[in-house]
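Standup, Tuesday
Yesterday: got the pipeline producing structure tokens again.
Today: sanity-check two examples.
Blockers: none.

Example 1:
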Amino acid sequence: MNILVCVSKTPDTTSKISFSGDGKEYNGDGVTFIMNPYDEWYALVKAIELVEQHGGNVTTITVGDASNDIIIRKALAIGANDAIRVDTKATDSNEAAFQIVEVAKQKNYDLILLGKETIDYNGSVLGSLVAAQMDLPYISYGTKLETSGNGVYTVTREIEGGEEVCEVAGPLVISAAKGMAEQRIPNMKGIMMSKSKPLVVVPPAAYDSKVSVVSFELPVQKKGVKMIDPENMDELVRLLHEEAKVI
């Protein structure tokens, strides 16, 4: 079973968000970057579990510059067999998907896994874009994944008010959500072995970007909470009339 796992670099959730002077780029100065948790905890670990059960190979793919290598090495330390990095900074999700597809279609992967979203843009569109460009079935927000190794996958995903169980013949693309697997911490042996595992850097395929960033803006800072004495109903009524806003 050959599995491709898409992993990406994101700012740590405690990072302070700011943008460049013209407002068109995220300011990464002094920011700690991590592997996107949904890619790491659920997609990557589930791929490793499947290969441990049925044999095969786990390859990670990342679209980005050399600053991504540290999180790629962590993926290798956790248990991926090898890694590919497309050496370009994608301008949008469609370009990232395009670069992934250009690599993926050169090999016969049985399964492509990725996290349900990244914790920076929270777009949750990459999986569907990859599946559409490869003309493969796509299941989003998978919480359980089982297979007997015969190329048929049983995927459970949450829907409003319950769960949906799908049985799909591979190859296919799945985005992983909480419940798919449990986080693994790389041990010393894995860290040492990751240094010798192959990380192949490939040039990007030619791409004509259809998206340009006009500007980023921080949300309006929330005002402090006003505490009103429960006996002071007149003041509460005044504030509701004069200051409260319905959005």
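Example 2:
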Amino acid sequence: MKTGLITAVTAALCLGLTGPSMAREITVGAYTAPGSTPNAKGLFPGSKRITEATNGELTFEIFTGGAMGGPKELLGNIGSGILDAGSVVVVYVKSALPTTDMLASLMVLRDDTKATVAAMNEMQLLHCPECKAELERNNVVGLSWTGIATVHMICRDPVKNLEELRRQKVIAPSGWGIAVKGLGATPISITTAEMYEAMQRGQADCAVGSPAWLDTYNLKDFSKELWSNPLGSYFGVMNWTFNRDVWNDLTDMEKKAFTDNLAQQVGDVTWGYEEDNNNAIATYVAANGPMTDPDQAFLDAWAEQQEKAVATAIEKGKSAGIPNAEKNVTTYIGLVAKWMKIIEESDGSKEAYVEALQREIFDKM
């Protein structure tokens, strides 16, 4: 009987060590620096909240600065199980996620990051079976999307108008690259990780980018021109990309810890980028004087590129054989309009924005 009791206790202990309550460490990869906005304002505080929500059952080991893969490698590293999770910028893996990249290529269309990011989350999580199928083929699950604040033209030397811009080599991926080419300039498609060196060495003259990059990527070291006119925003950052097998292995309680915190993280990153943009602009102006107002020729030419963006995205999607290309683009544009109205009605409140994200999207996952 004593032997039976020992056996029962041993079995119970083993179940306790291997069952669902056993603490688990999630490895997470990001190619951006630790102090970058999506990490400092999103990934670090967001993962801490999830650890607290699971009473320490989920902890995180976070690798930043490309330590576990650059922007082109992270999707594959997550899908193969080298990492459990990470942040994936879709423009760098567009052949693997063509439908999502088609939607994100509408970056020139709107300057309201809050609306475009919210619409992307709703589109991906509730209205785009083709997007989910692409993720499944890569053995990953996408939990939430963020973006960067409105982008501007940043140049290493003075560039004052459209005529001068046409003589420049401009770092501008995806939809921005199409628009920049339409303006008559030369687009260059490289990753943000390569941007500093390319501009410093003169391999690129300008970049379409967030003013926050003046600080986070140190473009302020040599940039002497910042245009005042916003040129849209990018909303194709899958900031929680999970290995599908790892995600499926989590308990319902652990999954709920994520879905209950995703809206807050999206809001924190979105507002954080806006704050970082404003701070970087203030620093630039103090050192270099006022931002440059582009000439009317540029404004007119840019408006033409914005008008073409939707048709261009649909045409490229169809040419690439993307299923339901026109339907998905149209649905996304409708969601942007929906979220612009929600944001307007909430008077720009961050708390109301986060509550709306939770109510309209994450509670329905």
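Quick observation on example 2: Residues 1-20 have pLDDT under 50 and may be disordered. The chain is about 55% helix and 15% strand.
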